[in-house]
Design a protein that fits this description.
Layout lengths: L11 H17 L4 E2 L8 H13 L4 E2 L1 E3 L5 H11 L4 E3 L14 H18 L4 E3 L3 H13 L8 E5 L4 H9 L3 E5 L6 H11 L2 H12 L1
Helix pairs in contact: 1-2, 3-4, 4-5
Bound molecules: flavin-adenine dinucleotide.
The site of flavin-adenine dinucleotide has 25 residues, from strand 3, helix 5, strand 6 and helix 8.
């Protein structure tokens, strides 16, 4: 879920109260709740809220974006706290001071953060459709003899269906994210407005499968 949908841009305590209502329900069914990461304007507040929720004993974890320069330090801190992290490249247009502006740098940072999460993280999740990043994770996990049940790949419903099945057949855990309900269209528009590459990405994915 996205914390701005729970009031993050209005009031941090309101957002935390709303999140706790959801986490209480999730706890009843022993469910883990992933909190998405939004633009860099919300990074610290999101990490603070997830840390407060973890401290309160809920099964909840944040997302780290490899496009952000701060992410290496964030991963170190989250590893120390034993947080369950999802790693992604980042879907938001960010100011160059805060983010890498070259695709190559975002990819290199993804690989470095993936290795750090496999070294010291707890059940990390690697959200990507990029074969090179997936290959790097598999290589690092094999080098470290990390069991396949100790990490997972995540992709979006509708993209790279064949690849999910291949990974699952090879014994990897794969989780597919499904936007559902009546508000999927505004969600889709928002993703496109955030960054025009998102539209191209979805169209490419739909055509290539
Ligand atoms: C489960 C999940 C959760 C996410 N959560 C967040 C979040 O909380 N916050 C956030 O900012 N972003 C999130 N994202 C979005 C993410 O940050 C990226 O914007 C998005 O996933 C695109 O990056 P990529 O790593 O998939 O690969 P890209 O860099 O877009 O693509 C790299 C390469 O992958 C290959 N590829 C990609 N798609 C295909 C395809 N369909 N067929 C063949 N090859 C393909 C191509 O070679 C392509 O050049 C999430 C993504 C996923 C999958």
């Amino acid at each position: 879920m996205k914390l701005t949908q729970l009031g993050l841009s209005l009031d941090q305590q309101l957002c935390l109260d709303n999140l706790f209502l959801i986490l209480e329900e999730a706890k009843k069914t022993k469910n883990f709740v992933r909190v998405d990461m939004e633009s860099s304007a919300y990074t610290q507040r999101t990490l603070d809220i997830v840390a407060a929720a973890s401290k309160a004993g809920f099964q909840v974890g944040p997302v780290i974006q490899s496009c952000l320069r701060r992410s290496q330090k964030d991963v170190e801190d989250l590893n120390r706290l034993g947080s369950r992290v999802r790693l992604c490249k980042g879907a938001y247009k960010e100011p160059p001071g805060l983010a890498f502006d070259q695709r190559r740098e975002v990819d290199e940072n993804y690989d470095a953060l993936a290795a750090a999460l496999l070294d010291g993280g707890r059940e990390p999740a690697f959200a990507t459709h990029d074969d090179r990043r997936i290959a790097h994770v598999i290589h690092c996990a094999a080098e470290r003899k990390t069991a396949r049940g100790q990490f997972e790949f995540q992709m979006l419903y509708g993209l790279r269906r064949r690849r999910w099945r291949e990974l699952a057949r090879e014994g990897h855990q794969v989780r597919i994210y499904v936007p559902y309900g009546t508000h999927w269209l505004p969600y889709f528009y928002r993703r496109i407005r955030e960054r025009k590459e998102n539209a191209l990405f979805v169209l490419k994915g739909m055509l290539s499968d």
